[in-house]
Write a structure and sequence with these properties.
It is a multi-pass membrane protein. The chain has about 475 residues and is mostly helical. The chain is built from 24 helices and two strands. Among the domains are: about 80 residues; about 50 residues, no CATH class; about 60 residues, no CATH class; about 90 residues, Serine Threonine Protein Phosphatase 5, Tetratricopeptide repeat (Alpha Horseshoe). It has a two-stranded antiparallel sheet. It is elongated and about 150 Å long.
Length: about 475
């Protein structure tokens, strides 16, 4: 569009000049020695314009000839740069596609021919990644050293080299070496702090350093740099490990360092409650569990909550009944209420809660508690039935209703007699008499065994209780 406007302006100027010069009576006189040349004004102007363009082209051509070496060098550099970029692009595409072997070849070729240190360092890093993917660690380390030497004088490229080396060491499982590279880089304020923090998180997780893992997980969760669920899970597990590692005297200070949301996490609350109970602070342990249970009813928290001294059973039973009003069909909560009622010797309420829990979900723990309840109530048949269900659920054995004895053995395919009948028939009469006496003894022993097994106590019921009840 701009070119068209320029042509239009020039055309207008030419037309205006032609109209002005058409009726002009002026002229140009050129004197050369004794000769004079006279031309009209229009012809003189045309001659001047043509001379100007001729001189411009001549001087432009002379300038091009003088600038030819520089232009040649620039053209050659652009050609090399274009080839470098083509190799770099092809190598990265192959690396992203998972074709590490051709990627390493192209990137190594770029490294050997490139004249730019930045592109050479970048090619070395990519080639090192390709060698790492093929588990050729010696070649990887050599390429990393080459990248480091090429990146001298470029701080960002040096940081990138250190970061990539640490990342590959983490993938190899060398967490100590990786952390030795990452921690100074993170303290100095690397260009990509979020990525460095994620790598540190990975290294601390491999090394099992729960204290630093907790700190990094908190930082990344606040920034939103990791998934919310993953961050909460890491904080919960690391916080629980930190609490378990505390001593009898220092657990309270560690517990205060957690936020309200972290204190409500089940694993953290369980670890803190265990420390409080070990220190003899049963009231504090109950408060810790109650604060977490108000946020979410968890079976692990309930199992720890019901394990309390006798003087706290009624108070915890009242709290659990309040939670039941908000969640009436929670089998874990009903099971915990049944346990507390058993501890408080409230047999009727215990039966009601446990029966409701059993209707919602089959659970061996509920069957065990019902068995203990019916044993206390003097109902051995009901107790045995629930203990049998609990045992079958845990051991994955089938439970058959009403079956008391083992079925009879199938003897239809048994042989008529021993394979040495002919030799047995040829034995002398004393031997037959000894055999008959032995059979008699064996028969008496079998009857004694049957009597022993018939009189054996049922598993889970004490023999003295059965004798008292009979």
């Amino acid at each position: 569009m701009r070119t068209s406007l320029k042509l239009l302006v020039l055309f207008a100027v030419a037309v205006a000049a032609a109209l002005l010069l058409r009726d002009s009576s002026g002229y140009f006189m050129v004197v050369t020695g004794d000769e004079r040349r006279t031309v009209s004004l229009a012809a003189g102007l045309v001659f001047i314009v043509i001379a100007f363009f001729i001189f411009y082209l001549v001087f432009r051509f002379i300038g091009v000839l003088m600038d030819a070496p520089t232009r040649w060098r620039n053209w050659n550099q652009r050609r090399h740069t274009r080839k470098d970029y083509d190799l770099l692009e092809r190598g990265w595409v192959e690396l992203l596609e998972g074709r590490s072997s051709p990627a390493e070849k192209d990137l190594t070729r770029l490294l050997n021919r490139s004249r730019d240190n930045g592109r050479a360092a970048l090619a070395s890093l990519a080639a090192a990644k390709a060698a790492h993917n093929q588990s050729r660690y010696a070649e990887r380390d050599a390429l990393l050293l080459t990248a480091q030497s090429k990146a001298q004088g470029n701080p960002r490229m040096l940081d990138a080299t250190t970061t990539i080396r640490a990342e590959m060491l983490l993938e190899q499982g060398e967490s100590k070496q990786a952390l030795a590279l990452l921690e100074p880089l993170a303290q100095a304020g690397g260009a990509n702090q979020d990525h460095l923090q994620r790598l540190l998180l990975r290294g601390y997780k491999q090394l099992g350093n729960q204290d630093k893992l907790l700190q990094v997980a908190r930082t990344l969760s606040k920034k939103g740099a990791i998934d919310t669920f993953e961050g909460q899970r890491l904080i919960e597990h690391a916080g629980a490990a930190v609490m378990k590692a505390t001593t009898r005297d220092s657990w309270a200070n560690t517990w205060k360092s957690f936020s309200s949301a972290e204190k409500a996490m089940p694993l953290v609350a369980l670890a803190a409650a265990e420390k409080a109970q070990a220190a003899g602070h049963f009231d504090t342990a109950g408060q810790i569990l109650e604060a977490s249970l108000r946020e979410h009813i968890d079976a692990r928290l309930l199992n720890a909550y019901v394990q309390c001294p006798a003087d706290q059973v009624n108070g915890r039973l009242t709290k659990a009944q309040q939670w039941l009003e908000k969640d009436e069909n929670n089998p874990d909560l009903l099971n915990a209420l049944g346990f507390l009622c058993l501890a408080a010797q409230l047999w009727g309420q215990a039966e009601r809660y446990l029966t409701r829990s059993l209707k919602l979900r089959e659970d061996p723990r509920t069957h065990t508690l019902l068995g203990a309840l019916y044993d206390r109530l003097g109902k051995p048949a009901e107790a045995v039935k629930h203990w049998r269900f609990a045992t079958a659920s845990i051991s994955m054995l089938p439970t058959v209703e009403g079956e008391k004895y083992l079925p009879a053995a199938d003897t239809r395919m048994d042989p008529d007699g021993p394979p040495d009948r002919k030799r047995a028939e040829q034995q002398v009469e004393p031997e037959r008499a000894d055999e008959a006496s032995a059979k008699t003894i064996y028969a008496k022993r079998q009857e004694a065994d049957d009597e022993y097994f018939d009189s054996a106590p049922i598993p889970g019921i004490r023999a003295d209780e059965l004798n008292e009840k009979s």
